[in-house]
C-alpha cells in the first residue's frame, strides 16, 4: 500500500470511518492515489465492530428486577432472581482487581430485605413465636425487660432461652447485632432466681454465682450495664472487674455488701490477677459464659483463660443440673463467628460432646439488609475518598465508624481530621486504661458522631446509632469483616446503614473475591465452622 505525502492526512481518517470500503474517493481526488485495504485487515476490523455492538447491546439492555449485585460494568451485575450454582464459577467484578488498570472500579451488594434477619418471623404465616412470658421467665425479669423497652424476642433468643433454661452446656452462635447478650443473660439469671443462695458460714473473698468472661473493658462495661438493669428489680448485685490499674483497684471493684456479688463480669487478665491474689474465689459458681469466644480462644488470652478455668469446679463427676454425668457448672460459649478448629480448643476446657449447638440460619452470612460497597483504590487516594464521604453526610445521618489496621494509623488519621476541622474520637489498644475509659460511652451518647478505631471496637459493642462503617484499611480476615459490617443494621437501629470498604493491596483482593463469590451464591463465608460436633 503506497500513499503520497499529501494523501496521508486525508486517507487515514477515511480508512477508519469506512470499515468495509475498498476505495477512498475523497483521498483519491485530493492526492490521486488509490488505497486498497487487505482482506485480512477488513475481517479483523469487522470482527471488532461486531464485538463492540454486542457489548453495547448488553449495556443498553437493562436486566429486569431488583439487583443483588450492582457493578460499575452493568454486564457483570447480578439480579436478585438469578441463582448461581454451588459448583458454578461466577464471573466476578473483582477478578481483575490485581491489575493496576482496575483502580477506580467498584461494586455494591444491594440490601435484599428491610429488617434484620434476627427480627424476621420464624414461620411463613408471620407468627412471631413465643413471647418472653410464654418462655417461663421470672416476673421480675419480665418487668426489667419492659424498663429496657424490649417487647419481643429475636431469633437467637427464641432459640437459646428455652435450651439454656434446661441447664445444658451450649455453644450459642448467631450473627452480630442479633441480641445474644439477652439470649444468655435471661435464662442464666432465671436460674439464679430459682436456686436459693446458701448462707455463707465463714466470711471470705467474694464468690459470685455467675461469671461472664469478656475480651475487652469496653464490652465488659456495656454488658455489665445490661446485667445490672436486669438484676436491679430482683435485688441481685452485679460487679465488673477490669484491669489497667493497681492491685488495690481490683479489690475496690469487688467490694460489695453481703452476701457479695451474684454476677461478676470481667476481662481475662483482671480475673486471673484477682484469683492469683486471692481477692476472688469461684467455688460457688453455677454458670459461666465465654462471650466473644473466637477472641478469647486467641493465643493472647489462652494462658489467663486456662488459669481461670482451673479455679472453677468443672469436674465432670460432680452432679449438675442435667444429671450426674453433667458438669457442675453450666458453661455457655457465645460468639458471632467461629473459625475452624474451635473444637480442638474447647476440648482443653470441657467435654464438647455434651454441648448443645444453637445456631441461627444467618450465621456466617453477609448481612442481607445492609448495603455494602467495595472500591478498588490506590493507597494515596483513600484519604480524599474518606474526606469526601464525611463531607457529603448530613448532620442527622447517624454516627460513623472508621476502622484502621493499626494504632499508628488511627493516630495519623486523627491528626488529618483535626486539620480538616472534623470532630472525632479515637479508640485503640495502645491507649492507657484512663484514656480509654469513657471514650466509647461518649460516642454512644452522641457527644461526637465520628469514631476512628481499630478492631477493638468491632466485637460485641452496641452501635445502634451507627449508620456508616468505613473500612479505611481492609480487614485481615473474613471474620473481622463480618464483625465490622455488623456494627450497622443491628437490632434497635433506626436505619440499616452502609458499609464502604477501600480495597488497596493485592492481598485484600483475595478476600474480596471470596466475599463476592459468597454473595453471588448466597452462601456463608468460607473457612468458618458452625458446629462443635
Structural class: alpha/beta
Distance between the first and last residues' Cα:
76 Å
If strands are numbered along the chain, what order do they take across the biggest sheet? 2-1-3-11-16-15-12-14-13
Overall, the morphology is elongated
CATH architecture label of the largest domain = 3-Layer(aba) Sandwich
Averaging pLDDT over every residue, what do you get?
84
CATH-defined superfamily of the largest domain: P-loop containing nucleotide triphosphate hydrolases
The number of helical elements comes to 18
Biggest sheet layout: 9 strands, mixed
Number of domains: 3
Helix content class: 25-40%
Q: pLDDT under 50 segments (min length 5)? A: 1-16, 22-31, 57-63, 316-327
Just give the CATH class of the largest domain: Alpha Beta
Please explain how this structure is put together.
The protein is of the alpha/beta class. The protein is built from 18 helices and 16 strands. A nine-stranded mixed beta sheet has the order 2-1-3-11-16-15-12-14-13. Strands 6-7-5-8-9-4-10 form a seven-stranded parallel beta sheet. Helix 5 (155-164) runs parallel beside helix 6, helix 6 (180-194) crosses helix 7 (217-231) and helix 9 (268-276) packs across helix 11 (299-311). The chain is elongated.
Layout of helices and strands:
Elements (H helix, E strand, L loop, with lengths): L7 H10 L7 H7 L7 H22 L6 E5 L6 E2 L26 E4 L29 H9 L7 H10 L5 E4 L6 H15 L15 E4 L3 H15 L6 E4 L5 H8 L8 E4 L1 H9 L10 E4 L2 H4 L2 H13 L18 E6 L6 H5 L9 E4 L11 E6 L5 H11 L6 E5 L3 H13 L5 E3 L5 H4 L2 H7 L4 E4 L12 E6 L6 H8 L12 E6 L2 H16 L12
Parallel strand pairs: 4-9, 4-10, 5-7, 5-8, 6-7, 8-9, 11-16, 12-14, 12-15, 13-14, 15-16
Antiparallel strand pairs: 1-2, 1-3, 3-11
Helix pairs in contact: 5-6, 6-7, 9-11
